[in-house]
Amino acid sequence: MHILMVCLGNICRSPLAEGILKKKLEERSLSWVVDSCGTANYHIGKAPDKRMIQTAASYNTDISQLKARQFSKADFEKFDLIFSMDKNNLEDVLRLAQNNDQRQKVRLLLNEWKPGLDLEVPDPYYGTTKDFIHVYKLLDEALDSLITNWNVEK
Ligand code: 4NP
After folding, report:
1. Which of 2, 77, 93, 125 is deepest in the core (most CB within 10 A)?
2. Pocket lining: 51 vs ligand 1, CB cutoff 6 Å
3. CA distance 148 to 55
4. Phi, psi of 21, rounded to the nearest 5 degrees
């Protein structure tokens, strides 16, 4: 399974999703490929936001070595599933899709956890420590569901 996490800047939500998912997969001895990216180009090449690195570290998750990159059309071919953190990211990625095969790969991440509710992972960038911790807890829960939902032969 090849999984891509997408947010706006690739410095807060999607790198955390990548880090938590990789850790869970290692704990379960699953060898999926996981990556993350942003729809925007603001932070290309940068490490995750310090507040997100710290929040992750407080839960024994190391995301300090990740580097931001921007989504590209080639990602539709490299990944089986593309999970967006919010509806804006979802629309931005869908706009770049060229066929139904590509469109079907793109989903809202939290629908793995609460199907059909179209819930979003809130952007913590302009928030406080509490908002970063909230994002961690949401992702931690949703990514358990993702693994359960997709842990099939692929
Ligand atoms: P992310 O958060 O999409 O979760 O990485 C953001 C990071 C940066 C900005 C917005 C959201 N920004 O406007 O620079």
Report:
1. 93
2. no
3. 25
4. -65, -45
Within 10 Å of residue 107's Cβ, how many Cβ atoms? 15
CB atoms within 10 A of CB 117: 10
- Rounded to an integer, what distance in angstroms lies between the CA atom of residue 111 and that of residue 65? 28
Q: Identify whether the C-beta of residue 90 lies closer than 8 Å to the C-beta of residue 84.
A: yes
The active-site residue out of 35, 75, 92, 123 is: 123
Rounded to the nearest 10 degrees, what angle do helices 50-58 and 13-27 cross at? Answer: 30
Cα separation, 56 vs 59, in Å, equals 5
Tell me if the pTM is above 0.85: yes
Could you state, in chain order, the average pLDDT of each consecutive group of 10 residues for the chain (154 residues)?
98 98 97 98 97 98 98 98 98 98 98 98 97 98 98 68
For strand 33-38 and strand 2-7, is the pairing parallel, antiparallel, or unpaired?
A: parallel
- pLDDT score for 111: 98
Q: Residue 153's pLDDT is what?
A: 55
DSSP state of 111: G
Question: Cα–Cα distance between 36 and 56 in angstroms, integer?
Answer: 16
Paired with 84 in beta bridges are 6, 108
